[in-house]
Amino acid sequence: MKRFFLSVLALFVCAAAPLSAQSKKGAAVPSTDDYNQSQFWIGNFPEGQYVVHLSRIVAVAQHKYILDNTCMVYEVTLITLGNTPTKFYYLETLGQNSGINAIRNVTDRAKELGAGAVNRATGGSIDPDTTVAKAYPNTNTVEFRVATLDQLNKMYASLLKAWQDGKGRTFKP
How many angstroms separate the CA atoms of 88 and 78, rounded? Predict the structure, then answer.
């Protein structure tokens, strides 16, 4: 029963992923962010802001995985000195970009239902495409969700460039 609940929850969370985004494979997309005069990488996101001193970054990783056989998670993980990893991700429902109409119809309907539930629960103040939804919140992880895979790739390029160059950058999707 618990496994079924987690799968349904994962489908609901994944269904809120935007359908208009196109997946792109290959190298990171060049960033369009701005240099700042500090030693900080600053990420301004719809649901919050993340600031990290470049000297505190230990590792940056980009990878993807399938969550509960319902959606593809594209994730950037930032590890800093200390014990709080940060994850930035984009969710794409499996089959979302396929040409099969039945899968598209189910995905469209799930997105409508998911967005409607979020709007009713929050009075429309939360964007279901960028809000992190957790079944079991991890207090040692900071998480940000972006609306498109292109935004995630640009965010990764910005973060990596700032870390490699040692020059602050400000990113906004």
Answer: 8
